[in-house]
Amino acid sequence: MHPRVKIKTLLQSGRSGYETTVKGWVRTFRNNQFIALNDGSTSASLQVVVDREQTDPALLRRIVTGAALSVTGTVIPSPGKGQQVELKATEITILGDCDPDTYPLQPKKHSLEFLREIAHLRFRTNTFGAVFRVRHALAFAIHRFFNEKGFVYLHTPIITASDAEGAGEMFRVTAFDLNDIPRSAEGNPDFRQDFFGRPAHLTVSGQLEGELGAMGLGEVYTFGPTFRAENSNTARHLAEFWMIEPEMAFYELEDNMNLAEEMLKYLIAAALEHCGDDLELLGKRFDEEEKQKPQQQRSEMGLLEKLKFCLDQPFQRLTYTEAIALLENSPYQKKKKFQYPVSWGMDMQSEHERYLVEKHFKKPVIVTDYPAEIKAFYMRQNDDGKTVAAMDVLFPGIGEIIGGSQREERYDRLLQRMEVQHISPEELYWYLDTRRFGTCPHSGFGLGFERLIQFITGMGNIRDVIPFPRTPRNISF
Amino acid sequence: MHPRVKIKTLLQSGRSGYETTVKGWVRTFRNNQFIALNDGSTSASLQVVVDREQTDPALLRRIVTGAALSVTGTVIPSPGKGQQVELKATEITILGDCDPDTYPLQPKKHSLEFLREIAHLRFRTNTFGAVFRVRHALAFAIHRFFNEKGFVYLHTPIITASDAEGAGEMFRVTAFDLNDIPRSAEGNPDFRQDFFGRPAHLTVSGQLEGELGAMGLGEVYTFGPTFRAENSNTARHLAEFWMIEPEMAFYELEDNMNLAEEMLKYLIAAALEHCGDDLELLGKRFDEEEKQKPQQQRSEMGLLEKLKFCLDQPFQRLTYTEAIALLENSPYQKKKKFQYPVSWGMDMQSEHERYLVEKHFKKPVIVTDYPAEIKAFYMRQNDDGKTVAAMDVLFPGIGEIIGGSQREERYDRLLQRMEVQHISPEELYWYLDTRRFGTCPHSGFGLGFERLIQFITGMGNIRDVIPFPRTPRNISF
Prior knowledge:
The structure is a homodimer.
Chain A: H1 7-13, E1 18-30, E2 34-38, E3 46-49, H2 57-62, E4 68-77, E5 85-96, H3 112-117, H4 126-148, E6 152-153, E7 159-160, E8 172-174, E9 200-202, H5 207-217, E10 219-227, E11 240-249, H6 253-274, H7 276-292, H8 303-312, E12 316-319, H9 320-328, H10 331-334, H11 350-361, E13 365-371, E14 387-395, E15 399-407, H12 411-420, H13 429-436, E16 442-448, H14 449-457
Parallel strand pairs in A: 3-5, 6-10, 12-13
Antiparallel strand pairs in A: 1-2, 1-4, 2-3, 4-5, 7-9, 8-9, 10-11, 11-16, 13-14, 14-15, 15-16
């Protein structure tokens, strides 16, 4: 018995003339002779050549799409196209049969909608194998990037009592039996009797706790799940998704921008370096999808082109006020091509962000210094009394990919903004404490992991870049 | 203005004779002359020497424990002990004051209990700085280990409809207003009207979903938060904790053991390699803690000794049946030194596990093939009809650190075990599907991240190795 070798290793080495064993699942079986065997290590399948004369017909009948096999044989140079080597089988063992009449995955193209219904099996398709290998490579690149810079990975809490951040609707967490909730004399739920002794929710962001870490450890980042109980059934929303949120003591807005730009380029470069095969496959898929769209809606760039567009150019930096002036004077505004008219004070829409990136600058853009009214309480107030030291990074195709700011480090200013936004200083005493004791300029930003994966894989629906999407009325698996 | 340098970088280089700027927080200020400045990058503080004659007394008064400073000066060789270089300050800027009368962290030893109450500030102490840097280094080492082996990092769902695993009490997740729950005609909560259209909970394990990934991607691992709504107020329990759960197609029990042993050694080696300073500090703390204990309860090994004990030796492997026989014939059993008497079929207690590791074999131990009755439904049944292909890895001081098994890949056998344990095949149809379509031998295990950090840092209470612990009636920050 030869030790098992992974198909990626076998194909990458390109070496031939030796015996080995591989294990995997049958993707296709042609002419009772050619098995395409895949073990998940790469999007490429290994061609296994069966000697149909010498093989038991009963065994041959069991070699069907989806069956798990162990194959021992000799690696030989492949006469066929598309691969350097193939495996000439000498011994085939069926590890697990697969009934073709009931197996939902047939050797044909299935719709993404259908595959979402069988998310427990979609890992076995080319597209989703590629998507989840890219997802892995990006997660690892994120950890490597921050580790190399001396950041500390901080696990901020998932269950939180804080509902003060105003970042959207929250899920409630309880150990109560909903059939039998203890009540106070007034008839309200008596949360003193619940597990945590008070109302608890799922976090919408680890930022505030991340800041606590940064004010002792210097530079930290979170990478964890966050939640929104918003009833949005769109291709852009999930109830459960993963966020990366770095927070850095002693960083001002420009340091923050530099870090965000460096990180995004590092991640794109990592995907290109480690996922070449998978991105090529996804790039072809992207082109096919685009062809289905009306001409006007098609992407001007292919998938790899978009990645290089972001990798090769310095990001254009300008203020919100400059961006609005530019949009107001743009041909699009004059020809009334924007759905939402432009004026100072507005929250920029995706169409405006994409205009800046794709039409005007033709490079990624960082917009800074937004009006205070449309940004969160914790962003640092600028001296003009109108704007805050916010920054949004805008990418082609999707608009905002990162949102961040220098944080308001001045106790009095922060308190004042909390009052304006009706956020309780008593609830967030611990957040204010960092401004009372040894405060310092600091900054941070947030990156939605699934948005990043969508950008890099070209997958149009966010449900197709997370293994088991949670959306309204959907909690399967 | 010189670009800021991190204190770790400055101290590690040992170079002197140049001007630079550092930023950090004052740990202590002695004789109006010596500032110990820490920026979180290392447990070591930089000695900053102030020229007290040339410095404004008003400024000197603001240099107090906890204040945030920017210091520019010249790096010079240090005449003092404990550091190669120090910084002769030429310019000191107070970034943030700290009122010594209200600042909870004084330059003295605080109890861990007190520091838990101010978890938002404990990052600024030596002990917790070290613990959370070690936590980071271990998290990164886990990702690096699996990435090097070609595993795919899989984000399994946090919110789940599955409550079938029987791994403990679960938290409920709902978008209902608990004051106003929609009711069915029978008066029960109408979950069809809840966010997901059915009851939802927080996950207790990503294993089952991990297996789905492994059956397409080959080798996967999870690293995410898991939850237990158990009302346990102990030094060993958290309501929210992080788990690492690898699942591998084509691995049998021995492959599983090999992976677990290799991983644990890799992680210990990584901590020793990357966290030397922090582990030295934690080792001293551990020794001091042990000295407070009665002689009999003291650890026989120091912290670093325990790490090397696990790193340097092959783990002893034996079956549960062999382990029970060994314990039954042990001097401890004969002298009735075990609190729980030993017999085949029992769930081994920590005292038995530690006896095997610390007294008998004097090395880490892997016990395999436990009685089916005390293990979960998904573990592979052995041919003896009594035991399953389980494995527990036992470590000194703590007992079980890893639990795993070969998974039952045979559809009929799995179904039969689910029936015995009253687990609904309809609910877990997706889990059974992997056994219906191309099943194969596969294995996996689980490692509690906080248990690992406790082992490596020597921290006795699990609440001291996670930034913001969640326990009954405790959800601060």
